[in-house]
Amino acid sequence: MPLHLTKVAFGVTGIDHLRDRLAERGRAGPVALTTRYLPKRHAEIAGGSLFWIFKHQLVARSPIIGFGEAEGGRTSILLDPDLVLVIPSPKRAHQGWRYLDDQDAPRDLGSAEMGSLPVDLAGKLAELGLV
Q1: Cα 55 from chain centroid (whole Å)
Q2: CB contact at 8 A, 22 and 79
Q3: CA distances from 16 to 66, 96, 113 (A)
Q4: Can you tell me the distance from the alpha carbon of 50 to that of 100, in angstroms, rounded to the nearest whole number?
Q5: How far apart, in whole angstroms, are the C-alpha atoms of residue 116 and residue 4?
Q6: What DSSP character marks residue 88?
């Protein structure tokens, strides 16, 4: 069972904006998200994803491809630029990234599940246990 990371989608106005931002940055390969330190549990993250928080909800994930070096001794978390929507689930905002156990990670949003509901509405339905 892989370990995942969570991060706030800072400056993003919506899921489409996040998707476009990742696609633009990932034109030439993986998206590099720069951080100060290599996660201590990076070996457990192999096969995991970075889950994006938007409006206090986990709404999407980007598969983590690996880790690399960045300028100034920093670390790059290398992400697949394809965004995978998940069933929205509540998550408080935080600075930086945090670990997320696989059993606590929301399931991917299937084409039959909730269709194209707005994130806020889908999150409220998930809170009520209706999806």
Answers
A1: 13
A2: yes
A3: 24, 22, 18
A4: 9
A5: 25
A6: E
Tokens 């998206």 -> residue: 31
Question: What are 61's two structure tokens?
Answer: 């994930």
Residue with tokens 């598969």: 63
Q: Is residue 13 within 8 Å of residue 54, measured between CB atoms?
A: no
What is the band of 130 on the pLDDT scale with cuts at 50, 70, 90? Answer: low
Give the residue-averaged pLDDT of 92-111.
Answer: 89
Rounded alpha-carbon distances, angstroms, from residue 124 to 54, 114, 119, 128: 14, 12, 9, 6
CA atoms of 92 and 57, how far apart (whole Å): 7
pTM above 0.85, yes or no: no
Q: Where are the beta strands (DSSP E) in the chain?
A: 4-8, 31-35, 49-54, 57-69, 75-79, 84-90, 97-100
One-letter amino acid identity for 3? L
